[in-house]
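Quiz preparation item.
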């Protein structure tokens, strides 16, 4: 287990180095409104991750919220924002510090880039329509990202020998059938509200393309 924890920390540090973007930090330093958005995003993420439930001990599941976070900030900034709720979880005793690397890589880094990849594909190959953005880049994107996250975590549990495959399927993977729709609905509703009332908060939303009068 120590090997996997060390590997998780290594992957997290590499991801943070790759995601470092000085421009975003300059923007946050100069724009107080953006500071409020970043810290509010971090607190919402902490609340989503702290509310965990599961059938078997050690096989807990929670909302991710990384899709809407990625659509708002981009994948690299989304990864850095996730550091704050992770620190709070460690501080409140909800997450052992040894597991932070693996937890962050599977819960923040991978979902952020999967979410952005799905958005990018929808932007490249589908019509630039508000409904496409909300339903595909928001709802379906979040649902798929959660299922992918559960599959990655399940594979990690099985390979590391923490739980037998039968237990993982019966007590963890089965929850994907229950969680994909709420995750998609949560992110889809958030994206809808942001697109209508705060479109400037969505870094991936372009008014001239998605709200063009000829569409």
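Solution:
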């Amino acid at each position: 287990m120590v090997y996997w924890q060390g590997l998780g920390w290594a992957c997290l540090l590499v991801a943070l180095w790759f995601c470092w973007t000085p421009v975003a930090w300059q923007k946050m330093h100069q724009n107080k409104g953006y500071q409020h958005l970043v810290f509010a995003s971090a607190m919402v993420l902490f609340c989503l991750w702290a509310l965990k439930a599961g059938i078997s001990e050690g096989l807990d599941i929670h909302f991710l919220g990384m899709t809407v976070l990625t659509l708002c900030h981009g994948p690299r900034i989304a990864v850095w924002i996730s550091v704050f709720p992770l620190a709070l979880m460690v501080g409140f005793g909800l997450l052992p510090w040894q597991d932070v690397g693996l937890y962050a890589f599977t819960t923040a880094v991978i979902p952020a880039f999967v979410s952005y990849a799905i958005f990018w594909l929808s932007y490249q190959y589908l019509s630039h329509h508000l409904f496409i953005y909300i339903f595909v880049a928001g709802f379906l994107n979040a649902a798929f990202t959660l299922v992918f996250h559960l599959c990655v975590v399940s594979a990690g549990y099985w390979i590391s020998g923490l739980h037998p495959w039968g237990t993982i399927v019966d007590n963890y993977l089965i929850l994907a059938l229950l969680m994909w729709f709420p995750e998609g609905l949560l992110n889809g509703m958030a994206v809808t509200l942001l697109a209508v009332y705060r479109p400037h908060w969505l870094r991936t939303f372009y008014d001239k393309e998605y709200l063009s009068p000829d569409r």
